[in-house]
Amino acid sequence: MPTRIGIAGAAGRMGRYLVEATVQNPELELTAAVDRPGSDFIGCDAGELAGQMRLGVPIQGALEPVLDRVDVLIDFTLPEATVAHARACGAAGVRMVIGTTGLSDEQKAEIAAVSARVGVVFAANYSVGVTLSLKLIDMAARVLGDDFDVEVVEAHHRHKIDAPSGTALRMGEVLADALGRDLKACAVYGREGRTGERDGRTIGFETIRGGDVVGDHTVMFLGLGERLEITHRASSRMTFAKGAARSAAWVHAKEGAGLFDMEDVLGLR
Ligand code: NAD
């Protein structure tokens, strides 16, 4: 029996790729698609909207009525919507794969609470390359240590509404852990004016927004006489969608509740 998938945000940029990735994955079957109440796309066939064949799955304006036909909900929407969906999934025993970024600490705590009841995969980036790059960044930070200054530079398309990207912040958390620092205390977001000399215990973030950039991330380790850069460039949203689809099959097969990320899905822990 394939895993029955619901997609929240099915009319969005990621949602359409998620529909395509679900259709292409033989372990999965799209059984429900949801978008914002009042969206112009309510009633459209999710397959046709994604440029695929007609699937007979119309986009609905509410999640609750379709939850009984879903094993795993894949949610790439907005933080408020994701939290509301997580509460509903927790109550209904439906597992989740969450891609939404920009959640506050309180909103993340709500997701963690839901994950005590159902399995939840929650990752800032579902690409295999970025997940591997977190391992490389961790290794580099442990070897290079405090002698090297660390900066995270990211670029995304003009429509992105949060900054720095969830992936850049995740990279910052990995760096801070490896270097024994508290990210909240040591992060510096952009620089302007008379900043003074760089404090060696900070982690800097720079954000670029424009055009149709799918997602570029570079972590720079800047030493005296040498510089190491670890860069990932996504060229298609399909890479995130395929990773999310794979995560949905994984979390459906996983016993019990819990909060997981792509490192768990790829067996990198
Ligand atoms: P988008 O604006 O194109 O799509 C979001 C969709 O969610 C829209 O169709 C919107 O109508 C819908 N939506 C809003 N409120 C809703 C609600 N209450 N119920 C159902 N649907 C609702 O944005 P996007 O570019 O597709 O990105 C969506 C999110 O995914 C962002 O947070 C982005 O940062 C994140 N993202 C994550 C990854 C990853 O790998 N984790 C990759 C790409 C994007």
Describe this structure in words.
The chain is of the alpha/beta class. It folds into two domains: about 5-125 and about 235-265, 3-Layer(aba) Sandwich (Rossmann fold), CATH 3.40.50.720; about 130-235, Dihydrodipicolinate Reductase, domain 2. It is about 35% helix and about 25% strand. The chain is built from nine helices and twelve strands. A seven-stranded parallel beta sheet has the order 3-2-1-4-5-6-12, with helices on both faces. The chain has a five-stranded mixed beta sheet with strand order 8-9-7-10-11. Strand 1 (about 5-10), helix 1 and strand 2 (about 30-35) form a beta-alpha-beta unit. Helix 1 crosses helix 8 (about 240-255) and helix 5 (about 130-145) runs parallel beside helix 6 (about 165-180). The longest helix has 17 residues, at about 130-145. The two termini are about 30 Å apart. Bound molecules: nicotinamide-adenine-dinucleotide.
Shape: elongated
Secondary-structure element string: EHEHEEHEHEHEHHEEEEHEH
- Which cofactors or ions or other ligands sit in this model? nicotinamide-adenine-dinucleotide
Poorly predicted regions:
none
- In CATH, the homologous superfamily of the largest domain goes by the name NAD(P)-binding Rossmann-like Domain
DSSP helical segment count: 9
The class by helix and strand makeup works out as alpha/beta
